C-alpha cells in the first residue's frame, strides 16, 4: 500500500513556468482590480471586459509549460498516492501527467452556463475564446468556469475529505490568504508531517509544526524529494 501524499498548490508553483502570481509585487492584482474581473458583480457590470480578461489569459496559457515542480509531483505517483488540490486555474499539473487533480477555483480551459454552475463545457484549443452571445447547451450565456470572489467553492468538501486521509501534506507556492482553501491545513490529521515550499515566509492558520523549505518551487521540490527519500 502506497502512502497518500496530499498537495495544496497555489500560483507560486506556476511562477517558474512564467505565469504571474496574484499578490507578489508584479502580481495580477497590482494591475487589475479584483472587483472588476473576479467577482460576479464585475461580470454583470461589464461582461465583455471580464470575458476578454480570461480570453487573453487562456490564449497565453499555450505559451507556458509545466516546470520541474509540476513534473516531480507527477513522478511521485511511482512512490505515493498523490492527490493534488490546486487553487490554480491553469492545466500545468495535468500536462505534467498528474492523474488526481482537484481545482478549487475552476479551470481556464472550461466554460459554464451563467444559469447552471453544473453545466460545464471544455473549450477546444482551436476556439478558446468566449464571446458575448456564445451559449451553453441550456441556451444561457457562457462564462468562464472560474470561482469568483463571493462565490461558493463547490470542491472544498471533497478537498477536505482528501486532506483528512493524508499521510503527508505538502503546500507549494500559496500565500494562504484566500479562504476556504487556506483553511484546509486545519484538516490535516494530527501527527502527519506538513511541508511548505515557498520563497517567502508564509503564515499558517494553525499552530502546528511545519517543515519549511524557503525556496522557489523547483529547488524546494528537489529538497523535499531528498527529505522523503527513505
Ligand atoms: N516558487 C514557489 N512559490 C512562489 C514562487 C516560486 N517561484 N514565486 C512566488 N511564490 C509564492 C509567493 O511567495 C506567494 O506566497 O507564491 C505565493 C503566491 O501567492 P498568491 O499570489 O496570493 O497566490 P495564491 O495563494 O495561489 O492565491 C490564491 O487568490 O486571487 C485568488 O483565485 C486566486 O487562486 C488564487 C487565490
Features:
single chain, 27% helix, six-stranded parallel beta sheet, binds adenosine-5-diphosphoribose, 230 residues, 9 strands, alpha/beta
Number of strands: 9
* Percent of sequence in beta strands: 15-25%
Computed Rg: 18 Å
Bound molecules: adenosine-5-diphosphoribose
Ranges where pLDDT stays below 50 over 5 or more residues in a row are none
Number of helices: 8
* Cα separation of the termini: 16 Å
Largest sheet: 6 strands, parallel
Give helix % range. Answer: 25-40%
Shape: globular
Name the average pLDDT: 96
Largest sheet: spatial strand order: 3-2-1-7-8-9
Structural class: alpha/beta
- H/E series: EHHHHHEHEEEEHEEEH
Commentary on this structure:
This protein is an alpha/beta fold. Helices cover 27% and strands 20% of the residues. It has helices spanning 28-31, 34-37, 40-45, 47-61, 68-75, 92-96, 156-164, 217-228, and strands at 3-9, 80-86, 101-103, 106-113, 120-122, 142-146, 168-172, 194-197, 211-213. A six-stranded parallel beta sheet has the order 3-2-1-7-8-9, with helices on both faces. Strands 5-4-6 form a three-stranded antiparallel beta sheet. A hairpin with a 6-residue loop joins β4 and β5 (120-122). α5 runs parallel beside α8. The longest helix has 15 residues, at 47-61. The radius of gyration is 18 Å and the shape is globular. 37% of the residues are buried. The model has no long low-confidence stretch (mean pLDDT 96). Bound molecules: adenosine-5-diphosphoribose. Residues 10-12, 15-16, 21-24, 27, 87, 105, 173-175, 177-178, 198-200, 202, 216-217 line the site of adenosine-5-diphosphoribose.
Amino acid at each position: 500500500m502506497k502512502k497518500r501524499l496530499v498537495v495544496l498548490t497555489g500560483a507560486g508553483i506556476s511562477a517558474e513556468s512564467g505565469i504571474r502570481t496574484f499578490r507578489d509585487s508584479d502580481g495580477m492584482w497590482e494591475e487589475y482590480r479584483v472587483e472588476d474581473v473576479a467577482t460576479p458583480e464585475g461580470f454583470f457590470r461589464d461582461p465583455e471586459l471580464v470575458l476578454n480578461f480570461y480570453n487573453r489569459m487562456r490564449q497565453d496559457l499555450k505559451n507556458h509549460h509545466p516546470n520541474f515542480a509540476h513534473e516531480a509531483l507527477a513522478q511521485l505517483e511511482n512512490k505515493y498516492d498523490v492527490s493534488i488540490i490546486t487553487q490554480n486555474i491553469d492545466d500545468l499539473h495535468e500536462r505534467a501527467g498528474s492523474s488526481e487533480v482537484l481545482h478549487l477555483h475552476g479551470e481556464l480551459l472550461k466554460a459554464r452556463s451563467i444559469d447552471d454552475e453544473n453545466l460545464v463545457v471544455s473549450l477546444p484549443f482551436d476556439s478558446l475564446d468566449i464571446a458575448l452571445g456564445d451559449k451553453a447547451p441550456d441556451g444561457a450565456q457562457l462564462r468562464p468556469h472560474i470561482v469568483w470572489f463571493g462565490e461558493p467553492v463547490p470542491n472544498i468538501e471533497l478537498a477536505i475529505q482528501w486532506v483528512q486521509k493524508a499521510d503527508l501534506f505538502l503546500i507549494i507556492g500559496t500565500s494562504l490568504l484566500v479562504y476556504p482553501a487556506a483553511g484546509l491545513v486545519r484538516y490535516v490529521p494530527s501527527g502527519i508531517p506538513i511541508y511548505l515550499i515557498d520563497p517567502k515566509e508564509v503564515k499558517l492558520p494553525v499552530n502546528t509544526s511545519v517543515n519549511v523549505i524557503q525556496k522557489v518551487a523547483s529547488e524546494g521540490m528537489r529538497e523535499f524529494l531528498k527529505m522523503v527519500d527513505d
